[in-house]
Records
---
Amino acid sequence: MHRRRRTALSVSAALLVAAPFLSACGNEAHPGAAAVVGGGRIEVAALQTQVKDVRQAQQASPQSAQLIGSTGELGRAKLYDLIVDKIVQRAADDAGATVSRKEVQRARGEAVEQAGGEEQLAAMYLQQRGVAPDQIDEALRRDVLVGKLAAKIGATNTPEGQQKVNEAFVAASKALDIDVNPRYGTWDDEKMQLGDYKTPWITQVTKEAAAPEAGA
């Protein structure tokens, strides 16, 4: 369990690879929406709030200039995260996988212990994943849910197991009929990619998530 959590925390800073934050005002079909996923809207205003939270955390960091300079594409990064949240949830729902509040709290406790404290954990998530302190629990919940999904579908820690998890994500993505505001790019179901923006988060987390629990 500790090894799996360390992998989730060592996610590449490629999540923060730069591209301009686009102050989209919506397209004709879905004015005010950054994307429509499964019939539900991801509002531009909600996306901007997420970006603002991260920017404020970055500005308060001793490495503020470096963090801000490396996250010019923060708007797309956060939209990607919000879309993936819904894909993971749909795949988990289809498989009958759930995560309890207690499991998220336990995952947070383990993450804090491994990071060396709450401040260190917050700094790590901000730097490596572009996640503000108040967004950490949701990120942890998603990580745990990926692991629960892998267990439900019998995906082991092998290339075949990882492929099985990826196939579940692709199926969920297609079922959600994702429509992204053109100002942010287009969504590719097969590549799990927003335009030319992609993060290795899914691959890196699912590799560890596919490892079965001891004694499971």
---
Amino acid sequence: MEIPRLWQVIATVRLGLAVNLWLIALAGLGYLQHLHWCVRDRWIGFTLLGFFALVLLTSGVWNFGLQTAAHAGAGAVRAAASGKTVDAYFGISPQWVCVRPIGPVEDIHVDGGEFRPSRPYLKIGDASGTAVLWDPAEKSALKMPMDKLRIIPVDEPPKSCAPSA
């Protein structure tokens, strides 16, 4: 998906914070050698430092990246399942839509599930001519070509998106 530049910069800063935690361990190596606490050919100091560096790197990546993304994704799935509006996260602003096929439904290539025009979908985003829609009923993401769809935004998900006769 296409993420706005501002949010790309914010994500880069967060990644930098995660990596900086790892650099604390390397700075610790400098202090240990300067104070002669880490003597050459002694493996205990280097082993402890390596363990400390690994713990800091893992906690930085987990806390600044993976945990927040997983939390936002789980919140979006819960909100979509209950039919509520989903909060934006890092430039992705999901919205409820009804989707009408342009031409026969059988001619539309769908990656990730089955497309049913009568269902409301949560449009997560689009990129390079591909729309990404979340199907709350099937709990799966559908990827479809945008040139074969007419996407109609709605304020809240209706019971059915079937066209009225």
---
Amino acid sequence: MNDTGEQAAPRTKRGPYRKGIERRRQILDKTVEVFNERGYEHTSLRAIAESVGLTHAAVSRYFGSREQLFVEVLREADRRAETDLAVDDSLTAALSSADFITRVPGLMALFNSMLARALESDNEDARAYFVDRYARLRGQIRVVLEHGRAIGAVREDIPLDTAASLLLAAMDGLSTQWLLDEKVDMQAGMTLLDHLLGTDPPGTYPAPTAGVPAG
């Protein structure tokens, strides 16, 4: 209660705590821009610190290493995408987080670079992130496939766990090809896979749009 007897408004998070959250988000967002301009080898914590007007020591207090920063950038991208995730009639609905990454070229390049490094034995943070991410997405995709099968949109003769892994593999593989050659049509590739997993009769696959590579 205040001096007039009215209910006081709830206090909001301010000061150093709120400023720290905003600064952390600024670093995450800026990292993608710097990575897109400089690539993996030249995107150091120092370069990122300079881009946001901080010292190297200040950035290191938020993220202990460059690998930890890169992994947290990917986790934040997943969080933003998965807030809009919903089960619907699309076989690729649960690929929304992967699709979010493909819409940001710098983020896609970072994703692929960290995926390659996750295979190295000393990159434990990256490996743990990708193991968890793929397990989570496979589970989400299976839910979508089960829903599709229940409404007659997904074939009855395919193992759903394998199909979920295949959808993820296709997205990753197509994104890598697109990074190397922008003529690769990722959407066409995923549309074809959707068609192959679905129950539409032969001869009903949509014709490629004029001027768009068929893949």
---
Amino acid sequence: MESASTSSPATPRARRGRPPEKGLAERRRRQIVDSACVVFTERGYEAANISEVAKHAKVGQGTVYRYFESKRELLDHVLDHCVERLITTVRAAATREEPRDAEEFTAQLRTIAQRLFMLIDEEPDLLKLVLVEAAAIDAELKARLLGLEATLSALMASYLETGVRAGWLRHNLDTAAVAHGLNALIVPGFLLALRGEATEEKRGRYIDTLVGFAVHGVSK
């Protein structure tokens, strides 16, 4: 009788798993951050919890913790989102095209102010979270918000330098100081709008004052 083969069976081929979807991790992170924006603004940062963020994002809590270590880290990303919106808004309005004369320069300054106030109309709760609540959470966040002010001031100073070079503003203008001053004037207007007290008429007067300070208050 022929003996049975003593050779060992072939090693089973490893089952190929589903290849990871390209860009899935980044989309998942964005999805969770977007949900954190909603939950934090609706509930307030202190009252909100990760389970609520997970529920809004339609993922498990474990998935949230896979991408973010803590609620505090999520807040950092929410702040990043707001900073990106603010900087993009200013840069888009300021660098749309080089102004050809003092009138166009003034019109672009007005557009910058109008677009910043439009952000309040679009995302009032998010800006309230970042500009009002986040500064009181800890020293690190307060420092980051001061850094945001410095970034926005640098962008505005760069734009004012265009007016100096063209001769529309004083040749010895301290553009950095004026830019910080404009930011300081914008904040009360933001708070007025966040309280729902900025009617169309009040907002128009406020923007006129900002533009007047920038152009007439520091002109030649």
